[in-house]
Every structure is written in structure tokens, then in C-alpha cells.
Amino acid sequence: MWMTGASTSIFVSTHDAVDLMIDTILSTLDRSRTMVALVVTGGGSAVIPRLLARPGASQMVLDAQVPYTPRALTELLGRTPASFCSSGTAKAIARQAYQRALRLRATPNTPVLGLGATAALATRRPRRGPHAIHVAVADGINLWESTTRLSKNTRSRETEEGVAEMIILSTLANAMGADRLIDLALENHDEWNTTLHKLAHPRDVIERGEQPWATVDPEGIARPGGAVPGAVVPGSFNPHHHGHTALLEAARQRTDGPVAYEISIANVDKPTLSCQELDARLGQFRGRASVVLTRAPTFVEKGRMLPGTAFAMGVDTASRILQPKYYGNNLEFERALFELRELGVQFFVAGRSIRGRYIQLGDLNMPEAARGLFHAIPSAEVRVDMSSTELRGSEKA
Fold this sequence. Notes:
Blueprint: E1 2-3, H1 15-32, E2 35-40, H2 47-52, E3 61-65, H3 70-77, H4 87-104, E4 112-120, E5 131-138, E6 142-150, H5 157-176, E7 191-198, H6 202-207, E8 214-216, E9 222-224, E10 231-234, H7 242-253, E11 259-264, H8 275-283, E12 291-294, H9 299-305, E13 310-314, H10 315-321, H11 330-342, E14 346-350, E15 352-354, E16 357-359, E17 374-377, H12 388-396
Parallel strand pairs: 2-3, 2-4, 10-11, 10-13, 11-12, 13-14, 14-17
Antiparallel strand pairs: 1-7, 4-5, 5-6, 6-7, 8-9, 8-12, 15-16
Helix pairs in contact: 1-5, 9-11
């Protein structure tokens, strides 16, 4: 479990501040093609209609519920919670929302989140317990939790509602890896803590098809989905070497979006990676780069998960993509190339020395159906002369 310390104040929310957070979250959801199911039990529930009123919300919100009464929440959870406003209840709601998101998504290639929130805010009568806001977001890999306690009798109900909306949005933004554009400033006796609970290894969540892909950031935190990269460098990275780094930089120069490495836990010619093997390979990128995790052994499958993405690779990998035998027959080969084009996939290809001969993209047999999909990286920019297999062999010698 990871926890930040309590912050020093909570921002007194304004409609403009909440709207800015909504814009940030919708933009992040759009880039990652992630969808979310939300359940807010009372305080802060006004964030739902505000979210749904924004253009494009229907492409990102799977479901939104407000079980406002104790009976409604009991029915949703299938049991009566020990407390209707607590950390445990928020986490239970988030798990229920996540399972509902998995059932409601239209395609298994869609990453999903489940958010649960419950709050006890100012009322017309004095509240005996604390004024508190509990929010949790479940994604199968992690459970992100936010617990806030507000100073009693210092804010109006309207102001506390705005604070609750901001906490809900901030927790969702944190779960998605979005930059926090608005600081939540707290008063002297307020407390705000965030906690990250690890639920499962990302390899296992992806292997069973629960989430289609995930992004591991340079800090080593894995999140389902993430901003779809403008370009990736795919590979097994056993080990990572300077050629991969050069390919990533070449990709960065050719796209406006973020770039990352990509590891598929499944491979056509190799056994599925174990958690231990995957951790060892991911460790090479700690503090250096983001890594996209998939279970897509073919580029058509990768393209379906990451439409519009370019793949940077050595010419040996490109040559295999251009061989019909890997598709079964010529018809399936042409269908695959057509789908890659429809998905907006591109390939950036660097030359390399193979058995003493330097091979470039222009040396490959390029069928008509593949023209325009492949683009050469000049040898002066990148030259990948050693593979990971060859590097392992040289280290053993």
C-alpha cells in the first residue's frame, strides 16, 4: 500500500474549477479510449449531470448511478454496510462499479474503470459524526482511494458539495494518470489522504482479458489504458539495448503524441511471459520511459488496441510482417494489410546488418497493398545492428 501525506488545505470549489477538471478528465479518457462507470451515493452527486452534459461524455461514461437512500445502496451492494459513509463502503461500491463496467463495455478492447463515492456533508441539523468524503476507483490492477475529513461547521452545504465534486474528479484523474491541474487547498483542520492498493499483477489482469492493455509509467505504476501513444517500439527487450533507445528517439521525431515501448506477454514463437520475467524486463525502464503492456502477438491485434499508432522497428521485424506465410495465405495477408491501413497504423523501419549484409526497407519485397504503410528511417539516424538475442549470446561468450 502506498500513501501520500495529508495536504494542507482544500480548495473552495467554484463552477469554473470543476468544469476545468471535467475538461481534463474527458480529454484524458478520450486519448486513452477508457470508459468509466460511476456510483455516487449522495454528496457530490451533482458531478454526474455536469459530466454527462459535456460533449463527448457518451463515449466515455458507461453508466452513472445515484443510490441515494440507504435501501438503494444496500440493494446495490447486496448487503447492508456497517457504515454508509466509510472507506470500506466506497471501496465496495467501486468494485461493484468496475464489475458493471466490464459487463457493459461494447468491446473487450476497451479499458474500463469503476468509481464509487460516498460523503457525509453539512445538513440542516448538526451532524454528530465527521464531515467526510470517501472516493475509490477500481481498475482490476489497483484500487485508488481518497479519504477527506472537513472541518465541521465552517462551510455551507453548497461549498462542501463543490469540494466533494473536486475530490471525486481528482481521484478519477489520479487513477487515470492525468496531470492534476488544480490543487486542492485545505483549511487548518482538514485532512486529505490518498492511498494506492495493489489488487493484482498487470500481467494476470491482461492475460485473462479483463483489461486489454495497460501503461506502466516511469515510476513503475501500471494503469489500464493510458494515453494512446503516437508511436511505440515493440519488442521482448531481453535485454533492452541502445538500438531500442535509438528507435524510440526516431519515433519521437515522427509523431506529435507520446512515445513508449511495448511488450506483449504473448508471443507467436515464444511462451507467455511470467510475472517474474515481465517484472525483470519492466525494471529496465524504471525512471526512463513508459511501457505499454498487451497480450497482442500480431500487429493487427496491436493496431486494434492502439488505433492510429505507429510502430518503430528493425528491418528484420518488418520483413516478417510482409511475408504472407505468417497469415496463412495471400488473401488473409491482404486483408491484414487493409485492416492495418483502416486502423491508421504506420511502420517506421530502420536498417540493420544481417549475416554481414546491411539490409534496408528498400531491399524488401514490398507488395502493392503495403505501399504507404512502411517508411524508412535513414541509416544516419538509426542503425540497429544487434538484436537482443545476439546481445545475450555475446554476454555469455
